[in-house]
Write a structure and sequence with these properties.
It is flat and about 85 Å long. Among the domains are: 90 residues, Winged helix-like DNA-binding domain superfamily/Winged helix DNA-binding domain (Arc Repressor Mutant, subunit A); 74 residues, no CATH class. Helices cover 53% and strands 4% of the residues. By secondary structure, the protein is mainly alpha-helical. The chain has 13 helices and 5 strands. Helix 2 packs across helix 13 and helix 6 crosses helix 7. A 3-stranded antiparallel β-sheet has the order 1-3-2. Strands 4-5 form a two-stranded antiparallel ribbon.
Length: 316
């Protein structure tokens, strides 16, 4: 059963991944086809015909439009590059699928339906509460007005008459006051030490939980220390309008630069410094720096094959 998802993420930093650059045209087209199958699979990230039954390599090759190549050898290369894992039944598992193709719970249809139902219930409850308060206020006003309109009778005592007059005066004075007393009433309620309703408590902040995008940044960063400080710097940059993809890409490029330039671990910047106010990450947005020179972007070998395939099939 298909997953219902018609797309998957293909990160722009894929072109700089040494594993992808190692693939030839045949293998690159092969892995793209496997990723597509993994995306539409009922168990996303896993490629199989039925539970416990994998595809025949030749069928995968035909589906990818691969010609003049060895599909078994291609699968072996993809496993060697740690792009996929194939079990004894031929079922293919995409490496790091959950980290790169993460999903939010709010995307799921059931979660969306529940959210809409909660929203409708909340609005309905608010409407009922507002109507109840309005009805109570109207009833009080009507009772007071009716009391004021009644004529004094001989049976009324002086005390009864005085009470009625005071009620009428109170009603008239309230009708002449402006209605914007909400703030004043709230202040009185808040300052009442005998109030039976306790003040609302702020929800406790969970410790040790971070956004998925930040976890991806942290996963590829070359020196992972002082995570909480890094997260604060991450939030500061997001508030300035920097997107998570830019920071993740810069982290990947910095990791490549440190590795290729042989930078010792003790000289690698802490992540909170990398994302700090001086913004060193900006130097790595455009790509890795190799010996202080910008590394030219390298096009994977398989891109040319992919373009030829698109032209042959007339895909637009």
């Amino acid at each position: 059963m298909p997953s219902g998802r018609e797309w998957f993420r293909l990160y722009n930093r894929m072109t700089q991944d040494p594993k992808v650059q190692h693939l030839n045209d045949y293998e690159f087209r092969f892995v793209i086809h496997i990723w597509c199958l993994a995306s539409e699979s009922s168990e996303r990230g896993v490629v199989f015909v039925a539970p416990g039954v994998g595809y025949e390599p030749e069928i995968l090759a035909r589906g990818a439009g691969c010609r003049n190549g060895d599909p078994i050898a291609a699968l072996g290369t993809l496993q060697k590059m740690q792009l996929i894992k194939v079990d004894d039944d031929g079922v293919i598992y995409i490496q790091n699928w959950d980290k790169l193709q993460y999903e939010y719970d709010s995307w799921k249809p059931e979660a969306r339906r529940n959210q809409k139902a909660k929203e409708r219930s909340r609005k309905k409850q608010e409407g009922q509460q507002s109507q109840g308060v309005g009805d109570d206020a109207n009833n009080i006003g009507v009772n007071v007005s009716q009391a004021c309109r009644k004529t004094d009778t001989d049976t009324d005592t002086d005390t009864d008459t005085e009470i009625k007059n005071n009620m009428c005066d109170l009603n008239n004075s309230n009708s002449n006051k402006p209605e914007n007393n909400t703030g004043e009433a709230q202040q009185n309620t808040a300052g009442n030490g005998n109030n039976d309703v306790p003040p609302a408590e702020k929800p406790a902040k969970r410790q040790g939980t971070y956004e998925t995008e930040f976890e991806q940044f942290w996963f590829v960063y070359p020196r992972r220390v002082e995570k909480q400080g890094a997260y604060k710097a991450w939030i500061a940059r997001l508030k300035e309008g920097v997107t998570p993809d830019i920071l993740i890409n810069a982290s990947q490029n910095y990791a490549i630069s440190c590795r290729e330039n042989g930078i010792e671990n003790r000289f690698i910047k802490h992540a909170k410094t990398f994302l700090g106010p001086s913004k060193p990450y900006e130097d790595y947005v455009g790509g890795p720096l190799l010996n202080n020179h910008r590394a030219p972007p390298i096009e994977p070998k398989g891109f040319q094959a992919l373009r030829e395939y698109i032209e042959e099939e007339g895909i637009h």
